[in-house]
Design a protein that fits this description.
Largest sheet: 5 strands, antiparallel
Strand order of the largest sheet: 1-5-4-3-2
Distance between the termini: 48 Å
Structural class: alpha+beta
Helix content: 10-25%
Strand content: 25-35%
Shape: elongated
């Protein structure tokens, strides 16, 4: 039987999801941030953005939904979302009608 001993663990990887509520032009984002990004829509629908500080990876989808992974703390997750938000605003799709 395995037992969980509180002093015998480390957080290695935290993942979070968020929805920015607006669609994103991934093609523009990849051209402007090609050194940090990878986008192969034939293979995967999301843009992979490797942020240096904090050291996390973001999966950014045209829908405005984002997955943040690789963080070591909740503060890193929050910092990553705060850092990417103004960048995503730059590439917000304009004049899109979203039906609910």
């Amino acid at each position: 039987e395995a037992k969980f001993i509180q002093s015998n663990y480390r957080i290695q990887n935290m993942t979070a999801t968020c929805d920015f509520g607006f669609p994103i032009r991934l093609e523009g984002l990849i051209y402007a941030h090609s050194s940090q990004s990878c986008y192969e829509p034939e293979l995967f629908p999301g843009l992979v953005y490797r942020m240096a500080v904090p050291k996390v990876v973001l999966l950014i989808f045209v829908s405005g939904k984002v997955v943040v992974t690789g963080a070591k703390s909740e503060e890193s997750l929050q910092s990553a979302v705060s850092n990417i938000y103004p960048i995503l605003l730059e590439f917000r799709k304009k004049n899109v009608i979203v039906s609910t």
